Amino acid sequence: MPGPMVVLPFFIWSLVGNLYAAINLAGHVDNNALVSWGLIIAPLLNAAGGVLEAVVAESTFNQWHHLAAVIVLLGGVSLQAWCLFQVPGLFV
Asked: Which of 42, 32, 29, 51 is nearest to 74 (CA)?
């Protein structure tokens, strides 16, 4: 069994949990659609970067695919961090 297939249930569990937390937190943000949607899109970008890294980059050994995966992951993490800092009262 390939390595990515072994961790697939944990990956899905992590994505669902992260999305649930993001949707729950986005429901508490008032009058800021950018932050609300950013909280929901960020876990999807993180998952897309993880899939790109595990499936595409590791099977082709092409460094450009690794770079693309890192850029997608950094985009998701940066968006999530920015959105979390925009939530009022979260870090008080």
From this structure: 42
Predicted TM-score (pTM) of the model is: 0.84
> Which tens digits make up the pLDDT trace of 50-85?
889 888 888 888 899 999 999 999 999 999 999 999
Tell me the C-alpha distance between 54 and 57, whole Å. 6
Over residues 20-44, the pLDDT tens digits come to 999 999 988 888 899 999 999 999 9
Beta-carbon contacts of 83 under 8 Å, excluding residues fewer than 6 positions away, are 35, 38, 39, 42
| Residue 42: Cβ within 10 Å count | 23
The domain limits of the chain are 3-86
